[in-house]
Amino acid sequence: MAVTGIKEVARRAGVSLGTVSNVLNRPDSVAPATRRRVLDAIDELGYVRNDSARHLRAGSSRTVAIVVLDVSNPFFTDVVQGAEAVVEAAGGMLVVCNSGQDPAREGRHLATLEEQRVRGLLITPVENGRHERLERLVDRGIPVVLVDRGSGQLNRCSVAVDDVLGGRLAATHLAELGHRHIAFVGGPASIAQVADRHAGAAAALTEHGGGIELEVVETKALSVTAGRQAAEDICALPQARRPTAIFCANDLLALGVLQGLTIGGLRVPEDISLVGYDDIDFAAAAAVPLTSVGQPREQLGRTAAQLLLEEADTDAAHGHRHVVFQPQLVVRQSTAAPRRRTR
Amino acid sequence: MAVTGIKEVARRAGVSLGTVSNVLNRPDSVAPATRRRVLDAIDELGYVRNDSARHLRAGSSRTVAIVVLDVSNPFFTDVVQGAEAVVEAAGGMLVVCNSGQDPAREGRHLATLEEQRVRGLLITPVENGRHERLERLVDRGIPVVLVDRGSGQLNRCSVAVDDVLGGRLAATHLAELGHRHIAFVGGPASIAQVADRHAGAAAALTEHGGGIELEVVETKALSVTAGRQAAEDICALPQARRPTAIFCANDLLALGVLQGLTIGGLRVPEDISLVGYDDIDFAAAAAVPLTSVGQPREQLGRTAAQLLLEEADTDAAHGHRHVVFQPQLVVRQSTAAPRRRTR
DNA sequence: ACGGGCGCATGAAACGTTTCACAAGGTAGT
DNA sequence: ACTACCTTGTGAAACGTTTCATGCGCCCGT
Q1: Which UniProt keywords apply (chains A, B) (predicted)?
Q2: Which of A246, A282, B120, B248 could join B254 via S-S bond, C-beta 3.0 to 4.6 A?
Q3: DSSP characters for A94-152?
């Protein structure tokens, strides 16, 4: 009921303002008897600290924000959960903001977060390159950690997964199964992750030799719908010109492709092999469990959060680190050796 | 750079503290020339409002929180997006908290949010019934809207979907297709949604007459894994005792069941029909597109947020409303008439 | 017995806003 | 010319904390 604060508690317990504050923040420096009295008063009054006042005084807050591209992509929800665990363990709070790939929305979020004087920021920026607003936050002393984005910048930490290697793994797997005609499905190519995964695949195939063809099918988005569409195009090809394997930049895409292929009457993996990327839970749960390139999603979030808190706690200049994880190929049932072509 | 506030801006613009505040909050009450000068000063200094101070003074904040059971369930991410849209349009910020079905975690979140003096709270509580902490928030004057939970309580608004009706729709659909032996897969039964959906199905079948059997397969969770497990059990039954249709409490479950049936060599819908619930995007994208009971997920979130803001804006006592949406059956390819039993 | 330390409690100052009562000057109405 | 009012700007108070210099009493060691 009591909407008021520490003052009322102090009066009730018959102590001074400062003492109540001490009970709250440095309980050991208060005599047990006094402490008891204060705690009782707090209970009776139903007193709850006022965070705004606390942080106004303290200057910094205990909340950390994470800005993601798409809250409904399981990849990000897992990253969020990882970060959440670390932040909460440290007594903080993680607020999740969704930019939905929209730079304007991202901007609004950053503005609000700046006003809130958040403790730190985890972000997968919508756009690459210089980011004025982000620079400002950094200048202001708010630590920023880039998530799932290699960092050209040196003035902040970053956490990422080696997408080039991921692409290599997928392509090598297909090549070793004997595929000679592979399609890469993904897009838009402006997205760094997509470009890297493709580059990795291309490099691996070149090294592997044997003139393996890597055809690119560019999609508009990394979504299930986009994948289904791409699959339709592929089904329409005459069998001779049809790839025997598909590597998707993303599991959502791969699920769409799987669906499209099924509709088009092609079986996975008998007629065509399929590799996804991210290894989201739905990949394993698909009707044909997907072979996919796994990323340590939760760990990505955890590490990012750790780096952030570390930086936030370090008073002095802190050495910015760039952690890169290794992806891992998870082989399931969507890949197999190509059938002999009818000769 | 300037870490300081309004004061410095005032000095630079050669005006008083109050004037700067007016420029920020009531620009019209300031002469254009003065306003210009102040705005310039703000720009040059890179001044950014301090939210803590503002809210300390104002008493209430502009952030609204939503506490969900599982951030990685697409159902909730859609609800969140709906709420987000409304809150952001109103100039507020939505913070997403994940209780992960854990009452303790939920409690910690609520404690923090109470300290933050959030403007309002959207929540799908982990447990039903009286909720001490929630009561406290309400007493404190923080509006609370229950999401996806019918409200026994009358001291707050709620937004829900009629789960009993949803159950009826699913069961009726199957009965009309000619199924005589149906299984309900879901659990734990303590979850209100699960119980309601089952109750609806049972009621509909009774009314439909013809002695249709409704068998219950209780699961431990509403997850893909749990569904796969349940499907294995069903596959193990001798054909004569095997249901010809399955109604799942949840799409995640249904996806798991679909996978389990496929592994077990049963085809959907030829051998067995399958109905899910929620109509998440992955349901439409499954290898066999799922018939499912759709809920207006985003609208659920939007409405909840609207109710909340409305309550927060109303000074006087406000009439608590309970909005109930109608679910809708979405028929896709996972349901069909049962094959004639081999006689 | 005396000074130094230590343990505990105090109260005022400061954090950066917003608000509010008020002042100064100008304009208009009578 | 006088009052009344409007427009624009002012500065102090208040919001609820935390922090810090200070004070008071007590014990201990010499």
Answers
A1: DNA-binding, Transcription, Transcription regulation
A2: B248
A3: EEEEE-TT-HHHHHHHHHHHHHHT-SEEEE--SS-S--HHHHHHHHTT--EEEESS--S
